[in-house]
Amino acid sequence: MGDQTRRSTPIPTPEEAFARLDMPLGEAMMTQRAIRRVLPDPVDDAVILRCIELALQAPTGNNGQQWEFVVVKDRAVKEKLARRYRQAWNLYTRFALRYLVREDDASARTVKAVQWQVDHFEEIPVLVVACLRLGVREGRVTGLRMPHPAESGYWGSIYPSVQNLLLAARAMGLGASLTTMPLWNLTSARRILDLPVNVTPLCIVPMGWPRGRYGPSARRPVGEVTHLDGYGVRAWLRPIDEQPKHKEAQDGGPRDERPPEPRSRDQRTGTTDSAPQPDPADEATLTPPR
Predict the structure, then answer these.
(1) Which domain, by its residues, includes 20?
(2) 21 and 79 share a domain?
(3) Are residues 52 and 172 in the same domain?
(4) What is the pLDDT of residues 18-44, one digit of tens each?
(5) Which of 18, 55, 237, 241 suits a disulfide with 161, CB 3.0-4.6 Å?
(6) Distances (CA, A) of 147 to 63, 65, 139, 157, 158
(7) DSSP three-state, residue 141
(8) How many CA atoms, within 13 angstroms, populate the side-chain half-sphere of residue 185?
(9) Any bridge partners for residue 219, and if so which?
């Protein structure tokens, strides 16, 4: 009863969840955040499969479609993954967290949210493990490190689909987040999930009906993280409506004015006097190793 009172709306039926997929894409993106605290109530298989179906619409390298998704619902399997998660989290908090976490309320809230997920991992209704199938037949020799271009393409072939999965969950009101910590011990993860050597687990998306809610999050201004033609040239530090307009020749010729080059070291380094503070309600403000 207490869990249900944490929700502002009742758990939707699959039909009601599907109807929410009409949410505008911009709204889904602007209100997406990591929802780690979820209810233990079951999630209908149709909702999970719809999320994965939408994940499969993402682009994939060379249209290889080498993804595999393991849906974990068995308590015994979740308990094994939970033990690996706790081992990785304890290691991380012991050696890294003290140096990376800011001393503010938002960071403390995020650490608490992660800790809640660590403590209740086996109670989460569904864990979706995103994997890639890549062996000799697909051009990779197991155990040999790939060159950087191949490695980049390898990771790039799964995370667009994972983002689609997260956006689908957001639209349907299903709580979701992303973690890799339970998979840090790859050999153990393969054994727990019965994966062959040519299938590699890359991340886990825990899913359930949220105890909290989605909503907008504070983020750094786009001008602070966007560089023109090379790193350090932050040409858009000023608000967009204050930027000079590109003038095009009447005959359709090339532009004759570019955004101004930064005039000071502060502009090149992005130093500002009013850096935004993380939203205390945003569970995704902490960025530890996944």
Answers:
(1) 2-208
(2) yes
(3) yes
(4) 999 999 999 999 999 999 999 999 999
(5) 55
(6) 20, 21, 12, 16, 18
(7) coil
(8) 17
(9) none
Pairwise CA distance, residues 197 & 210, whole Å: 35
Give 9 or 109, the one with higher predicted confidence.
109
Task: From 208, 236, 263, give the residue that closes a domain.
Answer: 208
- The model's pLDDT over 192-207, given as tens digits with 9 standing for 90+, comes to 999 999 999 999 999 9
CATH number at residue 34: 3.40.109.10
At residue 265, what is the residue type? R
CA trace torsion 218, 222, 223, 228 (10° rounding): 150
Do residues 264 and 185 both lie within one domain?
Answer: no
What does the H/E/C string look like for 191-257? HHHCCCCCEEEEEEEEEECECCCCCCCCCCCHHHHCCCCCCCCCCCCCCHHHCCCCCECCCCCCECC
**Burial (0-12, 13-18, 19+ Cβ within 10 Å), 98:** exposed
Tell me if 229 is assigned to some domain: yes
Once rounded to an integer, what is the mean pLDDT over residues 64-69? 93
User: pLDDT tens, 125-160?
Assistant: 999 999 999 865 655 666 667 676 677 777 788 999
Give the pLDDT band (50/70/90) at residue 54.
very high
Q: What is the pLDDT of residues 207-239, one digit of tens each?
A: 999 998 898 888 899 999 999 999 999 999 976
Is 0.85 topped by the overall pTM? no
pLDDT, mean over the chain: 81
* Residues 246, 181 share a domain: no
Q: How many domains does the chain have?
A: 2
